[in-house]
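Consider this record:
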Amino acid sequence: MAGQATTKPQRDAGNRRTTRRPRRTPGEIRERLLVAAREEFNRCGFAGARTAAIARRAEVTEAQLFRYYDSKTALFEDAVFEHLNQHFSEFNARNPVGDAATTDHRELERLYIREFQQFLGEHAGSLLSLVVAGTHTDDDVSGIAAIDSLRSYFERGATMMAERVGDDARVDPALMVRVSFAAVLGCVIFKDWLFHELPVSANAVDDAIMEFVLDGINANRAAGAATEAGAIQRSDDV
């Protein structure tokens, strides 16, 4: 009996040695932090989320978290807006744009806006909390417009729009992309406040937002197409 009592702890200790968790790479740690941060921000909002809780979710120490991100705001920016940038890239990869004759731009834009609405809906609580934190607290929140990953998103969207509408757009593509983003974002995060008294479904609200944004985008495209048609006509006249 005594011999059996001494061998079990040794066997258990050996098992612990063989099942030791492998060392994570920096990329793996960063990805775990981003996933954990999205979950925590969505659950608690920006103000309510705690870096200690995010670290526990990611199974790292809080000290490790701050080696990758020097503030909660920096972590939020990457967790949400870099994710948005990645979604934009993945959407374009899944839906390559052909020439004007073979691509239904309005349908493609409709599909993207639908996915964009869903993305913002998933993060609505966090985004609203970020807006409130930037307005009413002393937290290190520099404002949505100053977020690098979101600025990159705007620049890529404006470049794509400029390629489609040319130089004679009625509204500067850089401005149009931000106005469209703001329109969808505002309607999504304030949906319960703005639309709850109307006898309409959530889908009807989403459709109205989509048509509003599409009309603005296509007004620019119509202006570019009209300019191109005029140039062709003048060339034919000559």
